[in-house]
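User: Predict the structure for this protein chain, please.
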Amino acid sequence: MPRILACSLLLLLGGCAKTLPAADPDKAWIDLYTIARNQLSANALDGRDWAQGRYFEVSPGAHHLQVRLQFETSGGGGGSREHDGGGGGTRTCILALDYDHFEAGKKYQLKAGTMGRRGWLRLYDEQGGVLSRGKQLRCGAF
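Assistant: Here is the predicted structure, written as structure tokens:
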């Protein structure tokens, strides 16, 4: 019985994990990355909602990328609950990044993380070099 349950669970989880589409060689592909305990999703591209939450695929040139980073916080921090979502729980940060030189056929990595109760965002090229640093638009318990 435990073996059947384990196999059923694996099949169920496998069905939930959708494969990513093939990259379009006429566009730039931007993978999203954060540590396992955080959640990072593509939120908007050039001011429009972006439905593909796991990546961006953009035409060459300049683009404005916006992501949603969710992470767990511990209590404390000395701030008031009213102004910074003090206390423990899930915190959400909206982060944005502008980059003017996306190239067709290139793959990029958009990495996000946390420092204390704030989020950070960086764009990397295929060799791991930092191309641009993002900014935090807002953060809170929303």
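The chain has one domain: 24-140.
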